[in-house]
Amino acid sequence: MPLFRLSERIEFPPAWLARPDGLLCIGGDLCPTRLTLAYKRGIFPWFSNREPILWWSPDPRLVLFPSEIRVSKSLGKIIRKNCFSIRVNTAFEQTIVACSKPRQDKPDGTWLVDEMIDAYITLHKMGIAHSVEAWKNDQLVGGLYGVSLGKTFFGESMFSRVSNASKVALVALARELDCQGFGMIDCQVTSGHLLRMGAQEITRDRFLDILNHGINQKVPDSLWRSGRHIFPQIKTDSNPNRIAHAV
User: Fold this and answer.
1) Which of 160, 152, 153 has its CA nearest to residue 210?
2) Residues 164-177: pLDDT tens digits?
3) Is residue 241 part of a domain?
4) Residue where a domain terminates, one of 20, 41, 58
5) Which of 2, 125, 213, 229 is most buried (CB neighbours < 10 A)?
6) What does pTM read for this prediction?
7) Does residue 103 lie within any of the structural domains?
């Protein structure tokens, strides 16, 4: 497959033209219009400091269907103890910067370079990117951030300063999105801990079908209201490791 080079025009080649490793094209910029179009087309940026902007659409694609999240017995105990307060959009900039820190000391650096951080902060100010944070004793101890378009959430990164903090935030997010009828949480590339929490690999074609179905659906304005609390309660039923659908 060829590798496409983007011009100043805000457009992308079809996702199915990506190389076997998922790389589709190179170049362009991270302006809000281009970034938003990329997500609508099932494409995301991922590159390091010494690289040009690289755009990806992997096949298979890792996704988490909100109703299918798995909660281990140990995580269930933590949730029941109410160890964390889970809030929406109260500390987006702190969250994205915290997500970048663990990777900065690695030999290849972090893909969350300053250019990426600035771009997603802009999307957040536009009401497109959101953070879900875990707080303990009024301290930010974990969380995640991503992009929400229609009824699809594109997860970008997570961090934890306290064990299980980001997992509880993810459970709370999945519970909330399930209640709102979201089709999926895009996890992008495969990781062991997300597989253990119920994520699964699907084909690019299926991913794009689900994306196209949900991208233009409306969600309540209150869903991403800053300071809103969301809850990761679980219920006991025939599947004790599935999150609750009602408080």
Assistant:
1) 152
2) 999 999 999 999 99
3) no
4) 58
5) 213
6) 0.91
7) yes
